[in-house]
Amino acid sequence: MEVKDGGTIRKALLAINCIILSIGNCGGPLITRLYFIHGGNRIWFSSWLQTAGCPIILLPIACAYVHRSRTADPTSENKVFCMERPLFIAAIVLGILSGLDNYFYSYGLSRLPVSTSSLIIASQLAFTAGFAFLLVKQKFTAYSINAVFLLTIGAGVLALHSSSDRPANESNKEYILGFVMTLAAAALYGFILPLVELTYKKAKQEISYALVMEIQLVMCLVATAFCTVGMLVNNDFKVIGREAREFELGETKYYIVAIFSAIIWQFFFLGAIGVVFCASSLLSGVVISVLLPVTEILAVFFFNEKFQAEKGVSLALSLWGFLSYFYGDIKRIKTKKPTPETEMASPLPPNSLESSV
């Protein structure tokens, strides 16, 4: 495959992962909040659902294996899983951190409306930018700095009237604890994204998209196991049946919400790690942040949450920041003539794509 074609496939794959991330980023908080406001109160179970849908990833991994079987050299060994031990250990560590982050986020969302939770999660971009600078030496331009600034200001604007969204039956202590746990979730995931990028850079084997899916599978399996332990300690398995029968929308819809929650959250994690692979952890953070006001609007539509003027301003600032980032990236590409060396040094080598599709 020629370098030009590889660059085209890389852009297409990046666009696909951005779409997948958008579905998960907007739908995940809404369906999780739906679980809590209609009678669900098992935080560990909600955390477990965020990664329990990971067996879905086995389908594209199997497709990649079949493709390799048909196109690879017959004399070479074709393994179902290509991940080597160092990368496997790194994925386990990332999975434990992801499981902890799931718990922080679920706890916060159980106490806060989607609108308030989203504005706190928007601070994740600042954490991602800081950790990306420290861990992977992320280079910033005037446009990317402007994007981070605008998206952060957009979150700050939302915070001006966050107290008006506080549930009436919730104590001040519960609200503050939910705020702190959500902020901890934002900081931790802001650390996880650059750590994933660092794992790609330090890996001693070629990183293909098929291998990225394997990493995601291991991360989610470990995170699910982590949350399963929490469920066992908290006796969640004994309570789920009763909670389903008492669910305000009905027992059947309880399980439908649980199943779709697992599927939609898998879109988020697979899209996030895919964007890191195709571009950078900073871009993944930017996409997540720019979608937060969209989640706010959807929360207003589905849950009748208030939509103050500040949310409209935040949406405008977020879109401005998003466009600023991509304008700067397009300008950088036009001013820098690509060479075979720089193209091969891109986050997604063409040969990796060719071997993993």
Report a brief summary of the structure.
With 357 residues, the chain is mostly helical.
Question: Mean pLDDT, as a whole number?
Answer: 79
Helix content: over 70%
Number of strands: 0
Strand residue content: under 5%
* N/C terminus separation: 12 Å
Order of helices and strands: HHHHHHHHHHHHHHH
Regarding quaternary structure, what we see is: single chain
Number of helices: 15
How much is the radius of gyration in Å?
Answer: 21 Å
Structural class estimated from helices and strands: mainly alpha
Low-confidence stretches: 1-5, 337-357
What does the overall shape look like? globular
Which sheet architecture does the biggest sheet show?
Answer: none
Q: How many structurally independent domains? A: 1
What does the model show?
With 357 residues, the protein is mainly α. The protein has one domain. 78% of the residues lie in helices and 0% in strands. It has 15 helices and no strands. The chain is globular. The protein starts with a helix and ends with a helix. The relative contact order is 0.21. The N terminus and C terminus are likely disordered.
